[in-house]
Write a sequence for this structure.
């Protein structure tokens, strides 16, 4: 029997973020299990508790990690590049969130929701270019977690 | 979503029957990101309370009901 306490959940959360930072994708429950010497079903229970605390977001169909904000586990209209690494962000805010999370200079590309053109900006030495572009937040905070993919 | 102008944002919202929501500049969202995400890679990060989230918004002048979780 593997007992996971809240501190262990936070260690798993940290490893999830390390995984995203290093490999630009979420880890599976198997991969986290290998690091902690835990079976996947025990890791999946920890994933679920972290999901319930809004610390990660699981895919409803697979139970695997869909988001660990600002990182997205699936391709989106928002890309963040640093050197050879490219991360998917969940939304326009999260593109800048990845730069802040990783404390990196990055190049950001987002598909315009109307005409589909690529909008580009950068974060360099802690400053953002194209700072007059606009980010649209459709929903108030109270509704963010009703449907996080839509948000 | 990222737009070039407020007019463009309004037009898109009307076309797609989306709520007015809130629009911030990329500069504002960068400042928000630096406060919101600065501790995400720390091992000890354990989430934040609603009050802590509100404090972050308020530091940036985002103190309307839109930016309140409760």
């Amino acid at each position: 029997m593997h007992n996971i306490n809240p501190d262990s959940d936070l260690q798993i959360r940290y490893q999830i973020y390390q995984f995203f930072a290093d490999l630009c994708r979420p880890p599976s429950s198997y991969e986290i299990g290998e690091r902690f010497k835990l079976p996947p079903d025990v890791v999946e229970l920890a994933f679920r508790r972290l999901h319930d605390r809004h610390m990660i977001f699981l895919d409803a169909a697979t139970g695997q990690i869909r988001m660990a904000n600002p990182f997205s586990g699936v391709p989106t209209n928002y890309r963040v590049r640093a050197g050879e690494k490219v991360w998917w962000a969940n939304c326009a805010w999260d593109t800048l969130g990845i730069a802040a999370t990783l404390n990196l200079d990055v190049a950001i590309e987002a598909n315009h929701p109307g005409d589909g053109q690529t909008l580009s900006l950068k974060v360099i030495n802690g400053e953002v270019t194209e700072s007059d572009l606009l980010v649209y937040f459709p929903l108030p905070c109270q509704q963010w977690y009703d449907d996080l993919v839509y948000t | 979503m990222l737009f070039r102008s407020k007019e463009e944002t309004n037009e898109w919202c009307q076309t797609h029957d989306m709520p007015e929501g809130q629009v911030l500049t990329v500069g504002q969202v960068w400042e928000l990101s630096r406060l919101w995400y600065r501790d995400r890679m720390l091992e000890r990060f354990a989430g934040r309370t609603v009050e802590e989230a509100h404090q972050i918004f308020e530091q940036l002048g985002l103190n309307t009901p839109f930016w309140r979780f409760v």
Residues 8 and 24 of chain B are 14 Å apart (CA to CA). Residues 31-70 of chain B form one domain. Chain B touches chain A at residues 1-6, 8-9, 11-13, 15, 18-19, 21-30, 32-34, 36-38, 40-47, 53, 65-70 (CB under 8 Å). The two ends of chain B are 24 Å apart (CA to CA).
